[in-house]
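look at this:
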Amino acid sequence: MKNIHIIGAPSTFGQRKLGVNFGPDALRYAGLVERLKNIGHSVEDKGDIAVPAVDVEKFKGKQEGLRNLNEIIEVSENLSNAVSSSIKNQAFPLIIGGDHSIAIGSISGVSQHYENLGIIWYDAHGDLNIPEESPSGNIHGMPLRVLLGDGDKQLVNISGYAPKVKPENIVLIGMRDLDVGERDFIRENNIKTYTMADIDRNGIKQVMEESVSYLKDKTDGIHLSLDVDALDPVETPGTGTKVLGGLTYRESHFALEMLHNTNLITSMDVVEVNPLIDQNNHTAEQAVCLMGSFFGETLL
């Protein structure tokens, strides 16, 4: 059984819809702590990291360059420190967001403790944009590229070092919405990628087996970054960047059960739950159920 530290990162600054900052509380309200304790884990909710207050007028207004850059730098540094502290205390950090820009901070904190960190990016999107190619200026579309060492230098050098991960140590799963620059970068760097067409063709079982096989011998830790928009929006309506044709709830349960059985995942973040655009906290409840599977919950 694991010693789990839950770390809330209630940041909405990486995108343009208020509400994802309430994601950590929605997940707690959906019974996250109790569910993990009932499996048998030791669970300590470390609360939320310090996050700047939202200036609604600025948030809604037009901004030049990267949106909310200073706020995201502050969030990333605070989160990196909190995650690193948990790992130093032999805990499994479970970071709950917040939009996907928080992965800059969470993975910056994790990768300090590994020589060759692997990442499984379970998402509809690659999040591999750079500022000059981003259609929106939203930083939640850039975190993985930042972690690879490209983009705004202040973000790239969070916690004083870069890069945090190598292209050959990444697996993208669930891809179905990639910008042109992201597609080119994936091809040029030969990043292991499973689109929804691959999952339809080969099945989630084969995809997960291949992903684990690809990473296990060349990494000394694997971080799972789970964006709830990886699932079809019918399953998870309370998320801000919906793309039809995603993974099913059952496929995702099976994928996470398989990852649990490998005992290779060393940290995790769960992002993009937005209760303000949800239906009766349904998306948070689904996410908590998925985390149950990942942490070893079984029917029998």
